[in-house]
Design brief:
Layout: H1 5-21, H2 26-32, H3 52-59
Helix pairs in contact: 1-2
Length: about 70
Amino acid sequence: MPPTRLESRVAQAAEAVLEEQGFVDPINVLVGMGWSRTRDRRPLRFSKTGDRGLERAYRTHWVPARR
């Protein structure tokens, strides 16, 4: 069965994130698909306060250095 339109969009976004970052994380796939806002157009937040430092810490993905 061929991939659905959604599956194709996810794959395309994931491939772009992988090329740019060297790894894939869910939030950047969603952002790459244009899904970075809620239905009422508010930006997605990870914290209740929206503090920039907390937001950055929550979306940072630590990976081991390549050997």
